[in-house]
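Q: Give me the 3D complex with zinc ion.
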Amino acid sequence: MKTVHKGTVPFCTIGRKGNVMRARTFLLAMLLSVVMSFGLVACGQTSSSSASSSSASSSSAQVTSGAELNADEQKAFYITEITDDIFARIKGKSFKDDCTLPREDLRYLHVLHKDKDGKTHEGEMIVNKHIAEDVLDILRELYKNSYPIEKIRLVDEYDADDERSMEDNNSSSFNFRFISHTNRVSKHGLGLAVDINTLYNPYTKVVDGKRIIEPVTAEPYLDRDATFDYKITKDDLCYKLFTEHGFEWGGEWSDRKDYQHFDMPDSKIAEWYPENVEKS
Ligand SMILES: [Zn+2]
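A: Here is the predicted complex, encoded as structure tokens.
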């Protein structure tokens, strides 16, 4: 459903007699509505002025559908920098002692999400500043459309242990780590990858004839033809929104599958973190 601009009165409805008072009232109302909507954006996105201007995609890719949010719901979707309080929660956990990503490159997202029973929950996620606005838009659209996400908690609540977080079906993004045997940082380590409904959308790869599954408890969900809650498919809104915002889906990789995983393409990593690109 397209957004219709309600309350915009065309100028021609102001009487031909040129009632100055009505025209003034009209202009005042217009001014007030502009100021109010600006205020709403400002309070909904604390510190957004310092958020990145090089967003992953243009806003034209947004899907406008689902129920419109009320004022309280709108306020629940916001972005902040990593305040001291938030930093205290992640230091030594997802923000490890050897973290090479500056704290200033990260953003905290506060969101709402609905589980499979339609119950609303508060969610928290830390992502890279370059994708903060995109991920907020995506999670807002998913909420508006009641796309089920069970948990969106900081991985720090699981002591930054990915396996524990995934077994609990938690959705998250930033967790600093280097790619094994390299000095390059993984996309989750840069906060440029997002995992959704992780238990039901596992990672899997065959190594030396042996199948690896992460989380280890996700074997029942490897059958992607089976029907179960929280399954991400190529037809669903989660896939559609992430890919519209420039992300790639791990469910489409050929040498391995990572059904929970959406990340920014290597070309964006090279643009934003050129020092992190593999030297050949
Ligand atoms: Zn991932």
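A quick observation: Residues 1-21, 35-53, 58-63 have pLDDT under 50 and may be disordered.
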